[in-house]
Amino acid sequence: MIKAIPRFIYKVVPGLFLLGVVATGWFVIHELDFTDDTQAMDETPSPESRESSQNIVTLPEGKLKAAHLKIETVQPREIQHQHWIPGRLRYDQTKHINLKAPVSGILIEVLATPGDKVKKGDLLAVISSPDIGKARADVLKFNSELKIVNRKYEREKLIADNLEKLFDELKQNRSISEIEKKFADASLGKYREQIFSSYSKYLLARDLIKKIKPLANTGSVSGKLIRQRESELQVAHAAYQAICDQALFSTTQNKLQAETDLADAKRRLRIAKQQLETLLGYSEDVEESLSASQLSRLEVRAPFDGTIESRTFAKSERVEKSASLFILADTSTLYVAADIRENDWPAVGITPGQELTVQVPAISNRTFTARVHYIGREVSVDSNSVPLIAIIDNSDSLLRPGMFVRVAVPLGKPVKRLAVPNKAIFQYDNKQFVFVALSDNQFQQVEITTGITSDNWVEVTSGLESGQHIVTEGMFVLKSELLLEAEE
Predict the structure, then answer these.
(1) pLDDT tens-digit profile of 412-432?
(2) Domains of the chain, with CATH numbers?
């Protein structure tokens, strides 16, 4: 006999059945949603793939032509680390001069003003000075004395030369009439009469002894007379020889004295001219016809081509000796002055003539090249540095003395590293990037890390490999396209 089912079961079972149906439905729906979410998550790109797709720029043909991109191959380069040090542009000391008044006087003309470009020898100012007049007068005086002394020397030399010729003729025992005729117009000084007289007596004594000697054998002439005539011949010859020796000695002495006087006159004139040239600053030929005002005229002229940087005095002002008149400078070349300190000490190995790169912040669109003039030998106690002086070309007059500059000094020895041009790297969000060419019109922004830098090259330590192609010119177009794609 079947027992009766309790009444409360009929009430609970339908509720449990309904609860199971609801639970089953919820489970089915939850599984479907989870599957959809999982598929959706699987279809969402990863951050890496999303970033990679955003860093690629594809240029259409029109933009590619307009961009004028330049592509270069990444490869190892020889680079040398450089450090930028501050410096200043200075005047080239060999082409910068303070023109000062060499004497006291009055400025009667001022022909140059600041900013004027002048050529070597151009007249800048005129000073009237009594010191200049005295210096010119001394030149004229010593020049006149030189002329007098020179004429005296020429006469003494002529007399000495003529006496030598006369003595040569006398040795030939020519007659006195022949000698007098031949030297009638020759200058012989005060010895003409003495020499001719003694020579004539000598010839007479010689002729007499010649005539009476043949008569001695016949007894017509006594031996005493012959001895007397021989004695007279000896006396005449001795007198003649003494006159000749005295004339030769005196003329030689007179000639030497005249030479000494001539040399002294030339020396005094040369000193006077040097003194005048020192005062004038240039050499000139002083003419005897100069008036008093012309004698006192001092012309201040430009010693080299350059520009008048400043002027101190005006016309009619009185100037004292050593007063500054003009500052003249040739700025076609300038000095780059910098200091090499302890942290840049390897740079002291720079040699004269080596080229350095110079940047001028005031002229940001270009760089300049300077050639090392010298490196100081002594370390400054105050700054613990040595001076570096380089010469920079300024023929286009873009640079000015006093400008601040930055000088790239090489440190260490050159090394070969994977490197890219400086201009190929750009920065964004404190990171460094380049554009790598994936194809003719597709480019990818790639982050890199860098090492040592030189004037033109930067070492790449990561992010690139040798043989890749990067954009070195026209990156602005690529960056603009990349920003537009990011906004979309």
Answers:
(1) 677 788 888 888 888 878 888
(2) 54-80+415-487 (2.40.420.20), 82-92+331-410 (2.40.30.170), 144-274 (no CATH)
